[in-house]
Amino acid sequence: MPLAQFRIFSPDEFDVYLNSSVFSRTVKIIQNHHTWRPGYSHLSSQRGEMYWLESMRSVHINDRKWSDIGQHITTFPSGNIALCRPIDLVPAGIRGANTGGICIEHFGNFDLGADQMTDAHRNCIIRLNALLCKKFKLQPNASTIVYHHWYDQRGKRFSEEKINSGLVGNEQKSCPGTGFFGGNTIMAAQNNFFPLITEAMKDQATTPVVQPKMKKVKASALNVRSGPDKNSPVLRVVPKETELAVYQERDGWSKISNTANEWVFSNLLI
After folding, report:
1. Residue 204 predicted with pLDDT over 70
2. What pTM does this model have?
């Protein structure tokens, strides 16, 4: 099976993507994780969002021996949302909660005293969970939105009393962080996270933004360049039949990212 093609969206663009997509898999659980490492300090102009997506995929394949990157979605401090593993595939996220699950990795370390979540990231996380709940007809609660910290290594969920009392300790990592929306307990989620998602579900706009044009690569391989000309450096190569979102067209070139300068020759798309 070919590896997933990463796509980076603004929250508005992800809204359009999600609501225009049809999925074959039943989704009943939304998993929220944090990367822990890498964290906010690891992002730079040289090592941006796409770099870290590929880096996480490499670790998941080479170290954990998974078939591809484990998470369906990654969120970033910028507020961007990356589509990773296809949603119709079961994630590699939380043993015991993968069947029927969607796995989200929030880029950063949200343990107390670590990364301070940006406003853009906070709003993105709330909106993303709200969009997924609306798409899959879920009500935000401790059965539909879960944290890795709530499950033991065998995939059995700890009792609510044990989770809320802080007795999980080292039996499971702190994911999505001891400072994630007030903490990683069920009580913290019920008091500080779920109400925000419920409110965001009410506020979702009924009219989506304009959807980018979707085109496929007709050449055997297509260079993605940093600018709309043949002299710009090649950033990566995408294979034939890859579906690309075109956000802008200029002088025979197509821009295929809403967040970065990524251009391809338009005549090689259909």
Report:
1. no
2. 0.78
